[in-house]
Amino acid sequence: xxxxxxxxxxxxxxxxxxxxxxxxxxxxxxxxxxxxxxxxxxxxxxxxxxxxxxxxxxxxxxxxxxxxxxxxxxxxxxxxxxxxxxxxxxxxxxxxxxxxxxxxxxxxxxxxxxxxxxxxxxxxxxxxxxxxxxxxxxxxxxxxxxxxxxxxxxxxxxxxxxxxxxxxxxxxxxxxxxxxxxxxxxxxxxxxxxxxxxxxxxxxxxxxxxxxxxxxxxxxxxxxxxxxxxxxxxxxxxxxxxxxxxxxxxxxxxxxxxxxxxxxxxxxxxxxxxxxxxxxxxxxxxxxxxxxxxxxxxxxxxxxxxxxxxxxxxxxxxxxxxxxxxxxxxxxxxxxxxxxxxxxxxxxxxxxxxxxxxxxxxxxxxxxxxxxxxxxxxxxxxxxxxxxxxxxxxxxxxxxxxxxxxxxxxxxxxxxxxxxxxxxxxxxxxxxxxxxxxxxxxxxxxxxxxxxxxxxxxxxxxxxxxxxxxxxxxxxxxxxxxxxxxxxxxxxxxxxxxxxxxxxxxxxxxxxxxxxxxxxxxxxxxxxxxxxxxxxxxxxxxxxxxxxxxxxxxxxxxxxxxxxxxxxxxxxxxxxxxxxxxxxxxxxxxxxxxxxxxxxxxxxxxxxxxxxxxxxxxxxxxxxxxxxxxxxxxxxxxxxxxxxxxxxxxxxxxxxx
Length: 657
Known about the structure:
Number of strands: 22
Low-confidence stretches: none
Mean pLDDT: 82
Distance between the termini: 63 Å
Structural class: alpha+beta
Number of helices: 26
Shape: globular
Strand order of the largest sheet: 15-14-13-18-17
Strand content: 5-15%
């Protein structure tokens, strides 16, 4: 049977030919012919309707050689055509997107209506038969020893999971493998297979504390005893908790991100002319997040690694691509960045570098760039909370002590013991604790004493002399784990209550009679989960960012935090952080222009960035009650830049460079 490419693209042709089987000969627009299975030809015909809509000739090079179909197949193929039509052929973004969308809907309807006979199912008996084979038995009967702790349990469980995937995915290891087609087409959730066949494994409570009991039972065997049931029940409560308050807080965080970045609304074509670049290390683990960025190179590197062949602005900048990224990964590069762009109300294409010089082509006309970038960053961060409900993996977070803390304390299981070489100094000193880190000091006179875990959350400790002079300041938290007073320390403070120096902001604890063989603090192993991850991102932008005076250092630390759980183009992170920049005096919250990234800068926290960016944003952010409770409410804002809600207040925005 011979079919022309034009016939395959006709509306309804695939539906009419859906019962045909075997091979066919496809005649292309250039008269060349290719033999292929007829169902592959029908699928390609529906894909080619996108090309046909823009009069692009259908030739053999346009064939999508598919060996299986899943939900992502039309999306992946549509992306290939979309990039070709928009980037190379300069077709309108929205028109191409519309045709791709129509094509995807048609393919989904075709599969659901005409391909039901090819959809298979799994039964418990099929899975049981598969598990009776020796390779599966060997993996599925392994157990984790809970007496070794959850971190060891997680490592063992990770090895079991890896070996399970190896058995299921390697051809020939199982004589009977009914799950192989489902794994190939991505219709089976891989992260649920270990729970189904091997074990539920380590679990975390709703408080993110790791539960000591490890469940060696699985979905097929069923829970063995009441401890298994209680552990799984408490872990399941976490999903319900996330569905209520936690997700709502994460969504509020994403809204604040959009407000913060709203003062950078525009994208400008071409190059702003800025010669300033940002020295930045490209971590090989996250190198793909730098694809599309422009970097400054030597003439020799330009000739060798300019794979794009784009010379729009100068002969010393090249785009990072899949072809040349390996050369620059693991090195410090001079990167054009939104931080250095000369536009204060937007970013130029060259400083963006995103999507290989074609950012405007990929963005809808008139889009608010800052809000768009904040939405992208907020979604990849907060989406991890939603995903975490469906994941089986836990990760017992190791409590990491800073170098300053290690001079005085060492870890011993779940306690902090004072170092032997620090005892002489501490015996004649005081430990100063912030009042905000502890409960009422009057509780120390009660009987029984409150638990140290409930009464204290220690962020900072200072070593001070008898005269009150500070010797050292110790940051006790790694932003995930917070120590608290041990039972012995609580009893010690009760016995020496009259010797405590209690001030308005701190409490000094005399250490002269302390038994240094006993622990001063304890800590609880927690699960390094997605809720904590979002909280850390929020805390960075709401408070910690104020401590930074270096753009490269701030970008490095924040991108490492984001990349610890998610992947997103570095451009989104750069633009988001630029919105937090203020001038060094702190008197102006408009976006500054940076000409040298080695010079000190000043960042401000999210609340100030939102409320001080412009008058309209300030009015939108503050409550009306606060605005009108004074006789003469001030409408002055330290920022005079673009405001997201200027139009709602009928403010005229001046044109800015």
